[in-house]
């Protein structure tokens, strides 16, 4: 009887170990596939910051189209809306690919920034140009740092976007100078 119990116990132990081995393989397989789709903390912060910055610039430019009469300012706002909507689409692709949740609304701070801009009718164009210079300086720095990301899709997007952001910054500075 004792031999029978030992045999049953031994078989149960072998079955348990075998099942654990299968579970470990499944866990390892899932772990590897998930690690290819997730982003590190720095890349996550970059994507979220870039989305927020683009949303802010788009909203400020839409407000500008409703408030400004200056053709140079309106042309700049059109360029920002077009280019940053395209950038936002690319950022959303990275978010989808890397399983990062979307931010559909701007932060309260950014909403207040756009609202404050629209409440400056007398110096609106100058305030908008100043905001665009500041936002693009931040964006150039953000994207330049992200161009060194370990996540290839993030570094590729950042690297390809930096020249356009620098061109936007130069245009914003030229616009600002023309409004003085």
Low-confidence segments, given as residue ranges, are: 8-13, 22-37
Determine the mean pLDDT: 78
The percentage of residues in β strands lies in under 5%
By secondary-structure content and strand pairing, the structural class works out as mainly alpha
The biggest sheet amounts to:
none
CATH fold field value of the largest domain: Ferritin
User: Could you estimate the helical fraction of the residues in percent?
Assistant: over 70%
Q: Tell the overall outline.
A: elongated
Number of domains: 2
- Please give the radius of gyration in angstroms: 26 Å
The first-level CATH class name of the largest domain: Mainly Alpha
How do the SSEs run, as a string of H and E? HHHHHH
For the record, give the distance between the C-alpha atoms at the N and C termini, rounded to a whole number.
100 Å
Number of helices: 6
Provide the CATH architecture of the largest domain. Answer: Up-down Bundle
Protein name: DUF4142 domain-containing protein
Keywords: Signal
């Amino acid at each position: 009887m004792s031999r029978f119990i030992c045999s049953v116990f031994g078989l149960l132990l072998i079955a348990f170990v075998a099942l654990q081995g299968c579970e470990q393989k499944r866990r390892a397989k899932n772990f590897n596939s998930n690690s290819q789709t997730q982003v590190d903390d720095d890349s996550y912060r970059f994507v979220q910051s870039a989305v927020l910055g683009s949303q802010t610039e788009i909203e400020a430019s839409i407000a500008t189209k409703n408030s400004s009469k200056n053709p140079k300012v309106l042309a700049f706002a059109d360029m920002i809306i077009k280019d940053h909507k395209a950038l936002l689409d690319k950022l959303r692709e990275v978010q989808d690919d890397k399983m990062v949740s979307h931010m559909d609304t701007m932060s309260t701070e950014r909403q207040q920034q756009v609202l404050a801009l629209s409440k400056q009718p007398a110096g609106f164009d100058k305030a908008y140009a100043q905001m665009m210079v500041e936002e693009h300086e931040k964006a150039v720095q953000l994207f330049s740092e992200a161009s060194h990301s370990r996540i290839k899709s993030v570094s590729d997007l950042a690297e390809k976007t930096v020249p356009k952001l620098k061109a936007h910054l130069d245009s914003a500075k030229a616009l600002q100078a023309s409004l003085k």
